[in-house]
Fold these 2 entries.
Entry 1:
Amino acid sequence: MKKLLALGLAAAMTVTGAALLASCTDDGDDTVKVGFIALHDSNSTYDKNFIDAIEAACDAKGVELVMKTGIPEDNTCYDAAADLVDQGCDVIFADSFGHEQFILQAAQEFPDVQFCHATGTLAHTAGVANHHNAFAHIYQGRYLAGVAAGMKLVEMYENDELTEKNFDEDGNIMIGYVGAYPYAEVISGFTSFFLGAQSVVEEEIEGVSISMEVQYTSSWFDETAERNSAENLISRGAALISQHADSMGAPSACESAGVPNVSYNGSTESSCPNTFIVSSYVNWEPYFEYMIDCVMNGEEIEADWTGTLETGSVALTELGAAAAEGTAEKIEEVKAQLEAGTLNVFDCSKFTVDGKHLTTYMADVDTDDNYTPDHEAIENGVFYESKHRSAPYFDIIIDGITELNRS
Amino acid sequence: MISFLTSAIEFGVIFLLGCVGEILTEKSGHLNLGIPGIMCMGAAGGCLGVKLCYLASPTPNAFLVVLMGILFAMLFAGALGGIYGVLTVSLRSNQNVTGLACTIFGVGFTSFFLNNAVLTEGVSANLSQAGLNFFNAPLPGANSLGWFGTIFLNHGVLVYLAIVIAVIAAVTLRYTKAGLNLRAIGESPATADAVGINVTRYKYTAIILGAAVAGLGGLTYVMDYMNGIVGSTVDQTIQGIGWLCIALVIFTMWRPALAILGSILFGALYILASYIKGISFVQMSLLNMIPFAVTILVLIVTSIIGNRETQPPASLGLSYFREDR
Amino acid sequence: MKNIKEPFIHITRREHMPLWQGLLIRVAAVVVALVLSAILISAAAPKSQGFFGFFGSLFSGAFGTERRIWLLFQNTFLLLGVAVALVVAFKMKFWNLGGNGQILMGCLASAICMYYLGGKLPDPVVWLLMLVSSLVAGGLWAVIPAIFKAFFNTNESLFTLMMNYIAMYLVSFFISLWYPNGTGAMPPLTDGALPAIGEGAMSRAILPVIVFAIVTLVIYAYLRFSKHGYEIALIGDSKNTARYAGINVKKVIIRTLILSGALCGLVGFVLTGSVNRMVSTSMDGNMGFTGIMVAWMGKLDPLIMAGVSLFINFLERGMAQVITDFGFTSEALSDIVVGLIYFFFIGCEFFILYRVHFAGSKNKRTPSPEIAEGEAPKETPLPEEEGAKEARS
């Protein structure tokens, strides 16, 4: 009896609920509706970057925004996308790498809705017209952040702040980098950072260069692992630390040890006033405005949209108090060269692999299970990053960089 | 190596506090699976305490900041412990279920509270300043005594407090009348009741005090270990630490004194992966399993040996009904 | 001997409470918790939709579109499956807290089959292997703690809890092994995936719904009507009584936990084979713990548990909508509301099971039913069982 009652209650609730709400799907008007899928929520610096940008863009364009946060990289993403379609969205954006497969699936099922995805790699080969990837030439931002780091290293060198353990056996200044995973986006990021710092140090100090140790944490967000990795790098002699990981673990270890830190995706000035130098980040607002414009005007969105310094997609935060004198001017100088095209970040004459300069490299641009290299990336002595697709594909470990751990 | 040992101690005391808190609770016969949530509440409360100091004055006194952090951490954690106490002692509800509910609530509440009530404009700067300068202020001599100074003297006040608490707990449980009474209740509440011990009062005291101590663990994580920087998944991290604390209680066979060494060992194992050169991700997964595998071994071995000294309190997990005596 | 003062308040077990009264108290407790949540949330929200808006959003999130209703039922039956798996052990007073790990092992076993054999062997063969390996993996994960409990009385709550973590790191081990250059998340495996039936949201939801509806009914019958079920209930009542009745307690514990773990493994099989087609360290969705709450709130009765599971999923999906509509940014709000409901429910149990007497009142102390030494009294004296017990003693 008791059980029948319980079942009956459950059934009654279901029916009432369904009846009450079958009416509740709205929309039928003509304003563009934008759907947004975030991996975490605005408490994560990675997602906050996207969330702030999309809210600003939707505000500016006067369109409606529906946000779904806390969507993990599994089938829930597909369900979330489909739910957004049900709610009448015209374009849906997802912010995390692992969302792509599910977004692609949804795109195939709902050909009238546009699906855009950050950091993804499949759009240019999948052949699904309404699935698009987007990223930015963030390596340029990293390079500039590296320039700031280099300036700081030079200042520390000249003020005799470096100790013996900060130099490796070849007399190069050591720096450290905390990365999440050993794949192209991260490798491209730390290599460009390294090259930026190296260019300044080699220019300003006679006969001294830098070397970098990289430690991976195998997680995008693991506070303790990031903090310990930074500590490990510092105890091994790093004079400066940068990272590509979403928590405050590494900046916190730097602040505690008094070691300068270059951050990513947001300024850490308020919590780390003594060691924050600068942070590079991707400003997504230009892309979002472009995306909304295309939908409003019925135009095609590019399969691989890659923002640049000109579009304002690649940006640096304000310099921290710890930055060296003259950093701002130097950054402007280098930035102008990058924009003019007179300076290339991955200039093959500026780095070597196994002692030799690269003249050719087949990058794995088209995603397949075997990671087969398929596109020649080097033209005229320059490795063109993010040219064949928006997501980075520079995954070479160059001389001067040592990985402390690998998969 | 030195940096590894220093970090192991600094991290280990977080486990120590959670473990000692849970030992106190379990000695009274209550298995509190809400410790993960309670430790989170401690972190939330502690941050609020520090924030209040800065609201009162832009350059607060270091001693006051630390004190307020500790008091509020114990308050918040003790409150959730109190809820667990009311439900399991007075209302005789199932301890596992109540503990799990406490964890679910505590973790969620902490995340929500920190992000909405504590971390308003400018507070994160205050918190990290407090964490770096006040909670992490080392003992004198830390920098001048070489490796000894770095490993043993270079810790914040909470680390030393944790060890003091563990020692006090060990001494109290073993040598004082109150400790004896508590242990008696844990073994057989009916017998203790018959002898005139106020079972209810002891249980509540043990549960709430245990929760307060565990809450300090959460405070230590945020303010000492993470230098006052509140990350956005702090609740998940502390929750994971909380479950390990429950494991550590078994590992140390319900002895606070053993917990001091055991917690540093656990702390070392937990952070080991970041300090080994050349380790692959695959190996890291295996490394991370070790604290749990070791705990299982201890569980098995102590139950096979069956030595009375190493067993859980006999009435652990059971509610006490005087009427059934 | 010290003089024991007569306490001001003393508590006695109720003999029995009419069914409708118990249900009413529980429903009232939940309603109070919900109303309290609604008040707090509509007062504190950045974009408050008001008190009734709270309930509107709850229902909209759970039932608003056909897709949402299918998802609700998919999650309800998955959670029910876990709860039923755990109930089998709980009836014996064996605290299987390892649901998460057992589910993950089922997911992992299926994923391993899909990864290594998918596309190389005919699909039906792969499915069969997936099913068998998931059941075995889940069963293994539960039976290891069970064996030690049976022979050495090792504490099962803690053992099964630790096994959860080992399972989690095993999963991350394999993901790192298979995708060394990846980001820790694996892409969906297409070979060997279970077939989708029907279209859209229904295609993934229908399998869990059917499978676990059947499982629930089967386990209900198993526990209620079979000899095994009787043995389980007897052991849960009192191990000594069961031994005197000639039951091989060790064997029953081991057998039952194999079943419990295997059922969790089955959930893993469905999760990896059909719903998600991949494995991740959080694929269990914490159902191992939520399942405990469902089992307990459902009074260890599979049919009531169905209603409880529906309610909890209704809350979770509804709260996601509330968070969006009310302008919150923190996902944690859902846990707070669910936690509150748990507290109220747990609290109200007391008033159902016990009657409070104040000192000096004229209520005669009702004699409590006999309970074996050292055992905790049974949670719910259902009228039938209570009467049967009286007859037996």
Note: Chain B touches chain C through 61 residues (CB under 8 Å).
Entry 2:
Amino acid sequence: MKLLFKRPRSLREIPTHYCPGCGHGIVQRLVAEVVDELDIRERVIGVAPVGCAVIAYDYWDFDCSEAAHGRALAVATGIKRMRPENIVFTYQGDGDLAAIGTAETIHAANRGENLTVIFINNAVYGMTGGQMAPTTLLNQKTTTTPYGRRADREGYPLKISELIAQLPAVRYVERVALYSPQAVFIAKKTIKQAFQNQIENRGFSLVEVLSPCPTYWGMSPKEAMDWIRDVMIKEFPLGRIR
Amino acid sequence: MTEKIIIAGAGGQGVILLGKLIAEIAMRQDRFVALIPSYGPEVRGGSAYCMVSISDEEISSPYINEADTLIIMNNPSLNRFEEKIKRNGLLILNSSLVTDKIARNDLKVIRYPFTDIAVRLGNPRVANMVVLGCFIKYKRFSDPKIITPVLYKFAGKEKKDLVKINLKAFKEGLRLR
Amino acid sequence: MKKRILLSGNEAIAEGALQAGCCFYAGYPITPQNELTAYMAKRMPEVGGVFIQAESELSAINMVFGASSTGARAMTSSSSPGISLKQEGISYIAGAELPAVIVNIMRGGPGLGNIAPSQSDYFQATKGGGHGDYHCIVLAPSTVQEAFDFMGVAFDLADRYRNPVIILGDGMLGQMLESCSIAAYGLSNSSKKRRKDIKKWALTGCKQRSPNVIKSFYLKEGDLERFNLKLQKKYKTIQETETRYEGLYLEDARLILVSYGTMARVAKAVVSELRKKNKKVGLVRPITLWPFPRRILQDLTATHKRISFLVVEMSYGQMLEDVRLALEGKAKVDFLGRAGGGIPTEKEIIRFIKNL
């Protein structure tokens, strides 16, 4: 009998706190699988954000640090500069990376820090109860845009990946999604590439993952996946950006 | 015994460097020194000053309210610091640029055209070195020979070429009076 | 006399840190502490350490958080408005129990204030500063020599208690040049060696051990309270064992000046001036502002019945509150303070004492 599917070594045997249909569980598992496959569990250091993934360090079975809201890339910079022999990554949501942490994101990218960034874009603040994110789509309803996001008031969805792709020191930027098994497969391949880049000292790599939040989108898990495919990727096109 | 010196002039006249050189020379004689520079937006063209305390004991307060010696390089500085010198204190004036009258009559005053002397030597910015020579001679502050290693230290590699003219200016200062 | 060199307070702090094995510095420009940053930029590469000019104070303190989490001796420096921005990170450092040294070369406030020396951040430094029930250890050097010497003390305390340590100086201390002996530490403590001293809790990769996590987040009921009690216990130990002060003429003094940092030097000059006239004055100079040297003040009231105190600060009465708390109303406390650029002078203080 052949074993086809098992829990990655880098993932603890603990049920996560995520809502049904949430994308975080998928991506955190993908990270664990990639860490196992690249055989870097003993030298990887993860930096968890503030947001729904705040206790990701309870799920991963390797060294981790927390970071204040938005500061993950500053913390990761401090870690990596002191321990270049380790593989350091941040795992951040859209509020963390593209609103309160915009300066840290842009400047870590601009310095070309040899880091890997997993950027979860679900177009909403989950942990605090469904407020507008910088990546919230136009007309999308949230608790702070109850009539829908309006360009003349809240501006447009912020495409931070396209922004940092302009910076000469940035090595690799790609946007992926989780709406189907095939898409998840591509997401994993991309995440693996972003880690591989760091192992080869090739500089700043960022993977943006379009991820479902059925709870605050007011949808079923299936509807949420379809919404990514039918609506979200029109605003945030998939593929290699840099 | 504590010797308290205030040096004031325009930014760019090298008054803080002059203070640092006096402090360095004193320190090389195993005396305690403290120097407070003016700092911040006061740059070239603005005003600059420093307060230098020299003592055989640890210096308690480095801030000088009453100086023993006041070195004044331009008119606005005279105005600002004239009250900050003790009775019978020594006032060294740069007569090239200080034209205002001294209000006090209880001071020992020596005046030389430091800037004019420096211009004659080819660089108005070495006026501070002429003052240093004058000060050392007048106060019998130290063996003048000490200046050569001190200047090389301050100049470092990048400004080594400037030592020559500064030494020349210093010697010119020694020759005054 | 040992070989001495002429250094500014800012430079002495930087060199003191390097000699104490600091191998990570992140900062953001602000007057009057820029010489410290520049010194680090020049010297860090020479000792094999890391220097980063961060994009903001927020980023700088969080870089220190990251570097410290790997076990490295890490520090940052700033001046008042920048330290306000760093409070978030300092709270996280206290919460994650990371060692770190934060230098505040204080300037006038509130707001942008000015760049003149000031002691107006005493409350912020000693009462926590950021959110949550925590304390930083606060050291207040009053000379350039102390600025150098206290850096070794600061890093040792930070490591011993896994706690942030603040060096609280003012613009005058930062800018002032004094002769300074830098032979206090040997090069055996250099950055490179320190880097290899692995702390058990540090993030280094979970090779042959279970994973380490650096965090200040306690969701489960009761966990955060237990953690806070642990912190309180630590703070109590620090109060009992790490309080430092300098006392002058405490045996027979009837009037005790209480003053710290560069202000204490003016107070010292006042005391020696008045002693020449046989006035029974003395000085208590707190060296640790937190923990505050309460006991010596209490002891003084116990041994001398008719003793009184005069607090002199470059603020409008911040340390004054700690003096009053320590004395519990058992002695008269007067206050003389100026801020916003004003420094109480010897003459001013002596005149004030005469009118008491």
Note: Residues 35 and 52 of chain B are 4 Å apart (CA to CA).
